[in-house]
Amino acid sequence: MSDLLTTHLAACQAQGLATSTITQRRRAVGRFARRVGVQPVDATEPQLASWWACLTGTDSAKAVELSHVRSFCRWAAAEGHRQDDPSRALDPDHQRATPRPHVHVAHGLQGDPLPQHLDAMRLRGLTEATVQQRRRAMYRLRAAHDGRDLLVLDPDEVGAYYATMLRLSPGTRATELAHLRSYTRWAMREGIISTDPTIRLDRPRLPRRLPRPMAEDKLALAVAAASPRMRALLLLAGFAGLRCKELAGLERQHVLDGLAEPALLVADGKGGHQRLLPLHPLAVEALRALPMAASGPVFPRTDPGGHGRPMSACRVSNIINLYLHGLGITDTAHTLRHRFATAVYRQTLDLRLTQTLLGHASPTTTAMYAAHDVSQAGAAVGRLGLA
């Protein structure tokens, strides 16, 4: 902990702030320093704007985090420890819109081209989640280049930036590169730039991943020990293949348990796609055991700050993972989805059907979820012979 932060926390204590508030302030500043690499008072405006753009969580949690960082910066400026307050670049009303750091004009273009690109994505019908991922990727690049936009960088600068991602997984690097290239290709179509600064970058080769289905005995153990709410989450993930995002967005009107064959509507799947899933009897029973309201989220938040509001996908993932790990089970919420894919494929040997139930755009992706039966593979090999 820096000397300046120690002095600030002592000043907070002298002002009579609660110990819990002081602890939250210390942790918030520490999280900022680990993410950005410097203390908030030493950060540039683009770094602060990029941090705010990449901050995740509920609106209220983000507002609290921002409040702690701004309070530290304002105190440092007021006490003369810093000449100015770098946090002034951040939105004072804690709105969801991210403040824009200064962007150099690209070849005569007036203003910031990024908002135009994000609007073009929305016009194409891309989900808001994808739009925000693109925005965060661009802000990460800007933070590394003193606020300069990708469109004014040369290929050497972009290559050096991409090289800093070697510590990331190939899949993450491929996603980041896709964001960069989509932006530059749009800019070329619009006549904003004439050459693509990402032209020298090669897409990383993605390793072939094997399915990771949760073992049946572990699933049975987890379901048997679960509360009604956790039981429903586990069964919808393991017997319907729902993603954490889909669990978080599930509402009462999506549960069609009054039909002769109960079903579940995934109203906002990945990419904004919908799909209708048959409900397993165990999942129907678990859902009916919940105190579901006539409308609203099936799994609302229960904490005082968000009571009744839907959970985030991250929150759903965390509570499932913490529950499983507390039982000594190393699986995650996502391996429950692999379990569903594997079980369906082994029952039907129909990869296309499995793909449809999972909501995948490509059967190649489904093949990474559905594990074949090893005993059947062994029997098939054993039956081979010479003509």
Quaternary structure annotation: single chain
Average pLDDT level: 84
Spatial gap, N to C terminus = 75 Å
Task: Figure out the total of helices.
Answer: 17
Gross morphology:
globular
Structural class: mainly alpha
The CATH top-level class label of the largest domain: Mainly Alpha
**Biggest sheet, spatial arrangement of strands:** 1-2-3
Query: Count the strands?
Result: 3
Here the CATH topology of the largest domain equals hpI Integrase, Chain A
Low-confidence stretches: 91-108
> What level of helicity do the residues show?
40-55%
- Tell me the domain tally: 3
Strand fraction equals under 5%
Rg over C-alpha atoms, rounded to the nearest angstrom: 25 Å
- Please name the fourth-level CATH homologous superfamily of the largest domain: Intergrase catalytic core
Explain this structure:
The protein is mainly α and 387 residues long. It has three domains: 3-89, Tyrosine recombinase, N-terminal domain (DNA polymerase, domain 1), CATH 1.10.150.130; 114-189, DNA polymerase, domain 1 (Orthogonal Bundle); 216-374, Orthogonal Bundle (hpI Integrase, Chain A). It is 52% helix and 3% strand. The protein contains 17 helices and three strands. It has helices spanning 3-14, 19-36, 45-54, 59-78, 114-123, 128-144, 155-163, 170-189, 216-224, 228-240, 244-248, 281-288, 313-326, 333-348, 351-358, 363-367, 374-382; strands at residues 255-256, 263-266, 275-278. It has a three-stranded antiparallel β-sheet, with no helix packed on it. Helix 10 (228-240) crosses helix 14 (333-348).
